[in-house]
Design a protein that fits this description.
about 400 residues, di-copper center containing domain from catechol oxidase, Di-copper centre-containing protein, two-stranded parallel ribbon, binds 2-acetamido-2-deoxy-beta-D-glucopyranose, mainly alpha, binds copper (II) ion, two-stranded antiparallel ribbon, 12 helices
């Protein structure tokens, strides 16, 4: 056990700390003449950012919400640059979920969102992430998470609406549903959605917290399950669990869908498979989903930077029982419509490759009850040993 721990640790840290200086073999195979990643942006957990960095991020998002859209020709309701990103997600929602390139597509979207914040809105930091596991210890921990803080966060829950108006989802213990009344986005007008609608339809940002669900579906144990998988298709399937062709199964919700429905409930934007990027917290949630994939990849980078498997057609096996299309390969292409060029998956496998250039801080957030502040601590070997799995199923 100790030896395997050590071995795993070496596997985990070596590519980050040591091997970055040397060429890794897969890069020669897929050299595409792009740039070189010398100073990766370091993505950190939201609550570990100093307040002035939190403000800088939120100001940049608000800036994106004032710049004119670039995709109005294709998305009539897109008014702002922020809408552009929500719009491309709405348009592609039925092909990018419950498929093998779900992780890749969302990683690519986030990269361009982070790029827009930096290049068009003067943001100097990296895209932060929201580690939901820190807020899953109790209902009040979830409700009082620093992420919902009205002054240094994204605002909180909407007031309770008895009838959610959502025929597709039944979420036990939902507590909100109305317009987010506080925080920096309480006055923002979302233009797109609900669901597949890309016509201009002004609406407020809605949240519908389900705190009891958050204590069940955002836990460290749940996050750990996919990490037990050695092959990407099963890691990915378990990360996306919950949504099926015949409906959404709350009791199977994964660390991807769990936060969507714990924040969005029935009536909130985050629970809308199409329009969820209307809530700015979507990007912090998906950065965390990406962080998990990054951790999984870095346990065995030589293999896992080249492992792209799973169906190309939504709900094909293992997401459903169909075998309608081919499985994805590293040459399968994804795109963001007018927002970014189509690229083969191999370009987004390595976050420090010739296209992407970011990493995640090797730290964890710890609450200090005396100062009532979250502080960063270095991760121990055991904590980051995601391969130690007592009961591997595959
Ligand atoms: C909620 O709405 C249902 C159906 O309209 C109604 O029967 C019920 O009494 C309402 N509950 C509350 C607490 O208002
Ligand atoms: C929202 O609008 C109201 C009324 O115009 C204003 O009082 C409030 O300060 C605004 N809030 C934010 C976060 O901009
Ligand atoms: C895709 O991969 C699965 C195994 O994960 C396999 O059962 C299936 O036959 C493959 N489909 C095709 C079209 O090769
Ligand atoms: Cu999505």
């Amino acid at each position: 056990m100790q030896l395997s721990r050590l071995f795993n640790f070496l596997l985990f840290i070596s590519p980050l700390a040591v091997c970055r200086a040397v060429a890794s073999p897969h890069k020669e195979v897929y050299s595409s003449g792009g740039g070189e990643c010398k100073n990766p942006l370091v993505r950190r957990e939201w609550r570990l950012l100093p307040d002035h960095e939190k403000k800088e991020y939120i100001d940049a998002v608000k800036c994106l919400q004032t710049l004119p859209a670039l995709t109005s020709n294709a998305v009539p309701g897109a008014i702002t640059r922020f809408d552009d990103f929500q719009g491309v997600h709405i348009r592609q929602a039925e092909i990018i979920h419950n498929v093998g390139f779900f992780q890749h597509w969302h990683r690519y979207l986030l990269w361009f969102y982070e790029k827009a914040l930096r290049e068009e809105c003067g943001y100097s930091g990296a895209q932060p992430y929201w580690d939901w596991t820190l807020d899953s210890t109790s209902e009040s921990a979830f409700i009082n998470s620093p992420i919902w803080c009205p002054t240094t966060g994204f605002g909180g829950n909407g007031p309770y609406l008895n009838v959610s108006g959502n025929p597709f989802l039944k979420i036990p213990g939902r507590t909100g549903g109305g317009c987010v009344p506080d925080g920096p986005f309480s006055n923002y007008t979302i233009h797109l959605g609900p669901r597949g609608s890309i016509a201009k339809k002004p609406q407020c940002l809605r949240r519908d917290f389900a705190p009891s669900l958050a204590t069940l579906r955002l836990t460290k144990e749940l996050v750990r399950l996919p990490h037990c998988e050695k092959n990407f298709d099963w890691y990915d399937f378990k990360s996306q669990a919950g949504a099926r062709e015949d409906g959404f199964f709350v009791d199977q919700a994964s660390f991807h869908s769990g936060p969507h429905i714990s924040v969005g409930g029935e009536a909130g934007h985050m629970a809308d498979v199409y329009a969820s990027p209307g809530d700015p917290v979507f990007y912090l949630h998906h950065a965390s989903v990406d962080h998990e994939w990054w951790k999984w990849q870095n346990v065995d980078p030589e293999t896992r930077f080249k492992d792209a498997t799973g169906p190309s057609i939504r709900y094909d096996f293992p997401f459903g029982n169909h075998f309608r299309g081919p499985n994805i390969t590293l040459d399968f292409r994804i795109g963001l419509s007018e927002l970014a060029p189509a690229v083969p998956l191999h370009r987004v496998m390595d976050t420090e490759g010739d296209l992407l250039c970011y990493t995640y801080a090797k730290e964890k957030a710890v609450y200090d009850p005396t100062t009532k502040k979250w502080v960063a601590e270095e991760l121990s070997v055991e904590e980051e040993d995601w391969e130690a799995c007592k009961d591997p199923e595959h």
